[in-house]
Structures are given as C-alpha cells and as structure tokens.
C-alpha cells in the first residue's frame, strides 16, 4: 500500500511539472517530439487531460507489474497490449480516447485491489 501511495504522489508531482506548455516533450509512454506519431498519440500530446491520463496509466501499470508475480504480470502485459490496440483505433477522437483511458485506469485499479497481499 505504501508503494502505491508513493506512486500516486509521484504521479501528482509529475503532473505539476508537466503543466507548463500545451505540448509536453513526452507523454509517459511515448516521445511527443517523434516525427512519426500516430493520430492517437498526437491528440494525447496536444490534450492536457489525455496526457495526464497517459502519465497516470503508465505509472500505475509499471508499479503493478513490479508488484505482481510473473504469471499475473504476463497477463497484465497482454491486457495492456490489447488495450493499446483499442486506444490506437480511436485515432483523433478525443472522447473515445478519454473513455479508453477511463476504462484502462479502472481495470488497473481493480488489478491493484486484487493483488495477493500477506496477512
């Protein structure tokens, strides 16, 4: 629980750091300065709330994968790959991207709640 709380605090701090310009140098999961950005990535880089959602999603995903046993970690990684394909299918549709991030963050939250913890 302490590791997760620290991660949330770091995510908040990172969000404050990124608040300067409308187009940041990087979202959490890709470089916004790449010349070959996909349509969904361009919108994420240019839309503050989506960029913040990307930061939160990838930070949460990274923390969860570090806390999970190998078998569950593989399952989570497979789910992430499938989710990325769904996100990419949104293209430039901001509402679709918001919904995709909302869905994924909810799934990651559930995965955290279901972690096996020592009693």
Q: What does the model show?
A:
Residues 1-27 form the signal peptide. Keywords: Signal. This is Putative secreted protein. This protein has 119 residues and is mainly α. The chain has one domain. Helix content is 71%, strand content 0%. The chain is built from 5 helices and no strands. It has helices at residues 2-17, 39-46, 48-67, 70-89, 94-113. α2 (39-46) crosses α3, α3 runs antiparallel to α4 and α3 (48-67) packs parallel to α5.
Summarize the structure.
It is built from five helices and no strands. It is mainly α. The protein has one domain (2-113).
Distance between the termini: 13 Å
Oligomer: single chain
Shape: elongated
Please give the domain count.
1
Q: What is the average per-residue confidence, as pLDDT, rounded to a whole number?
A: 82
Give me some keywords for this one.
single chain; 119 residues; mainly alpha; 71% helix; Putative secreted protein; UCP037256; Lysozyme_Inhibitor_LprI; signal
Note the topology.
Blueprint: H1 2-17, H2 39-46, H3 48-67, H4 70-89, H5 94-113
Helix pairs in contact: 1-3, 2-3, 3-4, 3-5, 4-5
Keywords: Signal
Signal peptide: 1-27
Protein name: Putative secreted protein
